[in-house]
Design goal:
single chain; alpha+beta; Multidrug efflux transporter AcrB transmembrane fold; 4 domains; five-stranded antiparallel beta sheet; four-stranded antiparallel beta sheet; 17 strands
Length: 683
């Protein structure tokens, strides 16, 4: 209402409930539930939904200020901008569309955001084109001819003064803009990257390994004792609950180092939501990590934080693949030793954890052949003695009961009984096992893992994000590969999984989305302008949106993340909207014979109100999510922060640098005309 007639402002806002309820209905019938990401999609598109209505409503207001009736102004204002408004909606949809088809778990996780945006933008376009003009006609007072507000007249005067000088000093204007872009690239290179920043953690784990031979009952009792000590050290006001599981040491079924067995267990500690406490989950876990292990010397305890967002694995996960198990073991041990010396690295684990003790029976083939015993017969009798051999079946009514013979439990644990087991030979005699075999006592392997039918060994670790990021620890391990690979590098294949793998996967997906968005936006603009030069000028606002994102994250001390990069991809469709409509007016005036300087300044004055309104409404819709007004979520906040800061800076680019760039294009056009002596169009 600061810039538009109250009636027009009211009718513009009227469309929001209609759009929202229509979008919810479509999502309901599509089977999409209302979750955090869907709600974020609604919040993010809140400012975008009214952009179409603002552009048309502002244009109708302009015509009413020039003396047209509400009905005539509504028709003229809509007809004049139906093409550009449709193009602005399509460019935004094209920017969000590829995010629906990103690969991997992260793509599935964020797919609902572009769905919500596309559905609501489609309804907003329909409302702005077909419903809003009728509202303007019905609500606006036909007998009242409004005048421009004093505040807007003052703002327009200041803008015109700066715009005239930006066009006059157009080369300096573009040079300053490019310098700002290059400076933002340099600044971004110094900033940290985290796939999903920390801050919203509420759950962490104490993973417990006990000595070989521990029974399930003993593990249960030890976990209860552990839970008692944990609860003593956590303020009950911030503790939600704890749960304990005996028999495995990870709640995540996708965990690369998940171990199952009686001597494994874990405790899950769940704190109240981070918005309701002052203490960070990492601080609570660190305090326990200092005290708890010394209280339970019979336990090997490691700590792991459950980070918000989709499951991406551990900060560092190295997969070693090779034919020689001894080489893989040697390399894994060297890597573990190196990781334990790096500050900020904790919870270093591997597949090298020893398993239960094993008794291996090694047959002497020569003695067995001399005694007339074949290996298959020996194996069958040894298995029958311990696993049992079915010799008969007893029927009891309709039930059949197997009769199995085997050694009694006590005999199964006696090595002498095993070695005195008599094996029949081919001559009809019996040969004691100790005459043809000997015993080897070895520690078994806790787990044997394969990938693509090849034996692998995993080494993983977590990092304290106060000291380093996943990207930094992976880069450091790769840079120091000569220390832990050594001369074995040619005999092994090394693959970095976990968060590093998901990071590369997500970055590839975002690059594809960005390229797809650029090509789609260019095609839409080329159809709208029927030129090639104008689309390039309009799209100049896209890279300069990076300036706002980098500056915003730098001032907030926040790392660049996947969600902030996704915000930039989404920004590509949003930032062209204002410059598109302005460029349409400039093009029309130049085609009508208006001198290009006058056309640029007049179009800037004409579109200033719409540009400011669309930018302000979108930014205001995003700021509560970006800054947590009413509830902060670190997962979605980076995307809102990127969109809001990027849009603020790109709006300035639209108001000054895009007109300056168009002026340079006109200089090039005139130079070509003088050079070749014929008419040249900006295309």
């Amino acid at each position: 209402m600061l810039f538009l007639r109250p009636a027009v402002a009211l009718t513009t806002a009227w469309g929001l409930p209609i759009i929202f309820f229509s979008g919810i209905a479509v999502l309901y019938f599509s089977g999409i539930t209302l979750n955090l990401l869907v709600m974020f999609g609604f919040i993010m598109v809140l400012g975008l939904m009214v952009d179409d209505a603002i552009i048309i409503g502002e244009n109708a207001t302009y015509h009413m200020e020039r003396g047209l009736s509400p009905e005539e102004a509504a028709i003229e204002g809509t007809y004049e901008l139906i093409g550009p408004v449709t193009a602005t909606v399509l460019t935004t949809i094209v920017a969000f569309l590829p995010l629906m088809f990103m690969d991997g778990i992260i793509g599935k996780f964020i797919a609902s955001i572009p769905v919500v945006v596309i559905v609501l933008l489609t309804f907003s376009w329909f409302e702005a084109i077909f419903i809003l003009p009728n509202h303007i006609r019905d609500v606006a007072n036909p007998n009242k001819h409004p005048k421009e507000r004093a505040l807007f007249i003052w703002i327009t005067g200041i803008y015109t003064w700066f715009l005239e000088r930006a066009v006059k000093l157009r080369y300096l204007t573009i040079l300053i803009t490019i310098a700002g872009l290059l400076a933002s690239f340099a600044l971004a290179s110094t900033m940290k990257f985290q796939l999903f920043p920390s801050g919203a953690e509420t759950t962490f784990y104490l993973r417990v390994n006990m000595p070989i031979g521990t029974t399930l009952e003993e593990m249960r009792d030890n976990l209860k004792a552990l839970d008692t000590e944990v609860r003593k050290r956590i303020d009950p006001a911030i503790l939600e609950t704890t749960t304990m599981i005996a028999g495995e040491n990870s709640a995540d079924q996708r965990e690369a180092l998940k171990q199952i067995g009686d001597r494994f267990g874990f405790e899950r500690i769940i704190l109240i939501p981070f918005t309701e406490r002052d203490v960070k989950a990492y601080d609570v876990m660190s305090a326990l990590e200092k005290d708890i292990p010394s209280l339970f010397p019979n336990m090997e305890i490691s700590f792991a934080m459950e980070r918000p967002g989709p499951p991406v694995g551990r900060a560092l996960q190295v997969e070693l693949t090779g034919a020689d198990e001894a080489t893989m073991t040697r390399v894994a041990e060297r890597l573990i030793t190196m990781l334990e010396t790096i500050k900020g690295v904790y919870a270093v684990e591997s597949d090298l954890e020893p398993g239960d003790p094993e008794v291996r029976i090694v047959m002497d083939r020569k003695l067995a052949a001399y005694a007339g015993v074949d290996l298959a017969t020996a194996g069958t009798h040894i298995r029958a003695a311990f696993d049992g051999l079915r010799v008969s079946t007893i029927k009891r009514g309709k039930e059949e009961i197997d009769v199995t013979i085997r050694y009694p439990d006590k005999a199964q644990h006696d090595i002498d009984t095993l070695m005195n087991l008599e094996i029949p030979n081919k001559r009809g005699g019996l040969v004691p096992l100790h005459r043809i075999a000997h015993i080897e006592n070895k520690s078994g392997t806790s787990s044997i893992r394969h990938k693509d039918a090849r034996r692998i060994i995993n080494v993983s670790a977590e990092v304290d994000q106060k000291n380093m990021t996943s990207k930094e620890i992976n880069a450091q391990v790769k840079a120091r590969s000569s220390e832990w690979l050594g001369e074995d590098s040619e005999r092994l294949n090394v693959n970095f999984g976990g968060e590093e793998e998901k990071t590369q996967e997500s970055v590839r997906g975002l690059i594809f989305s960005f390229v797809f968005a650029l090509l789609g936006i260019f095609a839409i603009l080329a159809v709208q302008f029927n030129r090639i030069g104008y689309p390039i000028l309009v799209m100049l606002a896209i890279p300069f949106g990076i300036i706002g994102i980098v500056v915003g994250f730098f001032l907030h001390g926040a790392p660049i993340s996947f969600m902030s990069m996704m915000g930039f991809v989404a920004l590509t469709g949003v930032v062209v909207n204002s410059s598109l409509v302005m460029a349409v007016f400039i093009q029309r005036q130049i085609l009508d014979g208006v001198p290009w300087r006058e056309a640029i300044v007049e179009s800037g004055r004409r579109r200033l109100r719409a540009v400011l309104l669309t930018a302000i409404t979108t930014v205001v819709g995003l700021l509560p999510t970006a800054y947590g007004w009413g509830g902060f979520d670190p997962f979605v906040a980076p995307m809102a922060l990127a969109l809001s800061w990027g849009l603020m800076f790109s709006t300035v680019i639209t108001l000054f640098s895009v007109p300056a760039a168009l002026g340079i294009a006109m200089d090039v056009k005139h130079w070509l005309q003088r050079k070749f002596g014929k008419q040249v169009t900006v295309n």
